[in-house]
Amino acid sequence: MKDVHETFMNGENLKQKCIEMLHDRGCEVDDIIDIVFDLQKKYIPNLKREVCWDAVDRVLGKREVQYAILTGIELDYLAEEEKLREPLQSLVNSDNPLFGIDEILVLSICNLYGSIGLTNFGYVDKVKPGIIGKLDLEGKQTGKCHTFLDDIIGAIAAAAASSVAHNSHD
Amino acid sequence: MKDVHETFMNGENLKQKCIEMLHDRGCEVDDIIDIVFDLQKKYIPNLKREVCWDAVDRVLGKREVQYAILTGIELDYLAEEEKLREPLQSLVNSDNPLFGIDEILVLSICNLYGSIGLTNFGYVDKVKPGIIGKLDLEGKQTGKCHTFLDDIIGAIAAAAASSVAHNSHD
Amino acid sequence: MKDVHETFMNGENLKQKCIEMLHDRGCEVDDIIDIVFDLQKKYIPNLKREVCWDAVDRVLGKREVQYAILTGIELDYLAEEEKLREPLQSLVNSDNPLFGIDEILVLSICNLYGSIGLTNFGYVDKVKPGIIGKLDLEGKQTGKCHTFLDDIIGAIAAAAASSVAHNSHD
Amino acid sequence: MKDVHETFMNGENLKQKCIEMLHDRGCEVDDIIDIVFDLQKKYIPNLKREVCWDAVDRVLGKREVQYAILTGIELDYLAEEEKLREPLQSLVNSDNPLFGIDEILVLSICNLYGSIGLTNFGYVDKVKPGIIGKLDLEGKQTGKCHTFLDDIIGAIAAAAASSVAHNSHD
Predict the structure, then answer these.
(1) What confidence score (pLDDT) does residue A116 get?
(2) Where are the alpha helices (DSSP H) in chain D?
């Protein structure tokens, strides 16, 4: 088991693993870049997509982000496979709005580049732009659970948008 | 000095003091109730205004909220009076979007009733409904500073909305 | 599935369920009271155990605490049963000090009664008094995993200690 | 006023300004490095002081850290000069343990490198090693206030220690 562990502990490998996991759950890096671009284009008129890509890539390279992705997507998988004990199984599977553990789990992602990340996350979590709205709907179908996934994506987008905002002012 | 301190340390007195301070800065409790009602009426069709009033009142009764109000409004006053040292004076006075200390200061208010508070705060901070938008505009005038005030109001409304959401599910 | 869910959504039932889960994992409510008492007795000379008991009871009655207990203990169980996908399985099972998701999960517990909770949690997490140290050691044995449990207990104790501190000053 | 502002908005200038402010309040960068070294040497036997210096330097280069330093030290100055309105003046001046705004203000510093920062901060805040204990005592004298300063130093040390921990595992 140690070897498997060591293999993934390398940051670059773990980033690739996380990008694959997001892909397997229906979210491409491009979908996240779309949200970041939409969040920031009103503040930065000549914003380039590459700048957003770069920010998302840096966020995905952070260890705390990778661990939150691993943990959150695992809980979504387990809920789909009905392998969680009750009442957690029902709480996760129904995406109960008071559950709140999904938002807590991604707090460290939002906080990566200061407090603007939190504001962006709150906004994205309520408005559900692009892929987030699509996955939110899909998660309501039987056998599908995206309770943690949509918060993970929202938090990555929010953190990347904050990073773009900070850099545009330097 | 001790006596002055003791007088205000009583929770009920301090709540009244905070309501007066908000009033002096241009925000009535009713303005905050408006935001809470708007945030929650889409989720609770038969929502009553009294329920929102009660929630705002409970939030204003919390010590951590009172201390955040005292500190934030003081910094706004000092910025208006140009009594802060540079570069803080300019950062607060211009409501620099990367300053972030205003959002940090109110985090403990948002967190009072679980993580929905954070989401609500992020949304309100971006959309600036009602009194928040009005004060935000007013704060851009010479001699006026509402850098901390709008976040304080947003956080109180967000926490009260979370409390309403929790209670409606019990 | 709905029925099971409804049964537990009642706050009092869910509190009992959580107390049983903690017991099954080796932690009694009394063990948590011990930590709270030790944390606060240096500040409150005539501190009574009942006051600490009452505070722990109130913390366990909070929904966000109950959901964190359900989620964290589930992840410990799944790690013991080797049912998590790699590399999460190894990260949780080895209680990797950089994993950090265990500390994040309990943040909302620590924050229940203001920022003293955070300070208390940080201290308890490093010093590992009483049951926390015992479970930390036990978790290092093959087939045992208490990665999330010790942070949950530390956070409950920290929040209860903050509540005791606040009340003693009112 | 704009010019003054622009001058300091440059990251490197602002870092130097913050180091001077810490010096003027009685804390050298070396004092912070001492705490970081002590926090991490038990985990990393061959830890070098340069590594800790580098981590503290990187923390001091972050904008959210610089803004927290500017704001916190300003409030300490204003309390010493008795320029805050009551009851804030008494709350800050007496370093009231339930005030909590000082801990909140530095949360974004603690969170810079993941959740270990929070644990380190909680520990340091309770144990008060080195310069923190010295300033805490000094702040209790008439005319002196270090209510925010000791939390700022603790948070910088905690964040730097987390950075050292992360890097030693890569």
Answers:
(1) 81
(2) 2-9, 11-24, 29-41, 49-60, 63-80, 88-93, 101-105, 107-110, 116-127, 130-139, 149-169
A45 touches chain B (CB under 8 A): no
Closest CA to C156 of C76, C2, C42, C39: C39
Amino acid present at B159: A
Residues 56 to 75 of A: which have CB under 8 A from any C CB?
Answer: 63-64, 67-68, 70-71, 74-75
Neighbours, chain C (3 or more CB pairs < 8 A): A, B, D
Among candidate residues D163, D158, D157, the one with its CA nearest the CA of residue A63: D163
Q: Contact A123/B141 with Cβ under 8 angstroms? A: no
Residues 78 through 97 of chain C touching chain D, CB cutoff 8 Å: 97
D49, two tokens: 């002081």
CA A144 vs CA A83, A86, B125, D81: distances in Å: 13, 17, 32, 61
Question: A111 at the C interface (CB within 8 A)?
Answer: no
Which are the contacts of A36, defined by CB distance < 8 A and separation ≥ 6?
A52, A55, A56, A157, A160, A161, A164
Domain A2-169 has CATH 3.40.50.2300: no
- pLDDT tens sequence across A75-123: 999 999 999 999 999 999 998 888 989 999 998 898 788 778 888 999 9
- The DSSP line for D56-87 is HHHHHTSHHHHHHHHHHHHHHHHHHTT-SPTT
Q: Among A10-19, A106-115, A159-168, D122-131, where is mean pLDDT lowest?
A: A106-115
Nearest Cα of chain B lies from the Cα of D59 at a distance, in angstroms, of 16
Q: Does B125 touch chain A (CB under 8 A)?
A: yes
Cβ-based neighbour number of residue D98 at 10 Å: 19
Question: Would you kindly state where each structural domain of chain A is located, as residue ranges?
Answer: 2-169
Q: How far is B97 from chain D (nearest CA, A)?
A: 12
Nearest Cβ partner of D107 from B68, B85, B104?
B104
- ipTM rounded to 2 decimals: 0.91
Indicate whether B12 pLDDT > 90: no
pLDDT above 90 covers what percent of chain B? 74
From chain B, the residues in CB contact with A43 under 8 A are: 97
pLDDT along chain C (170 residues), means of 10: 51 92 98 97 94 97 94 98 96 90 90 83 93 95 94 96 82
* pLDDT value for A3: 45
Nearest by CB to D1, from B75, B90, B99: name it: B90
C-alpha pair distances (Å), C127 with each of B23, C30, C122: 46, 19, 9
Q: Which residues of D33-53 are buried (b: 16+ CB within 10 A; e: fewer)?
A: bbbbbbbbeeeeeebeeebbb
Asked if C122 and B128 touch (Cβ cutoff 8 Å), the reply is no
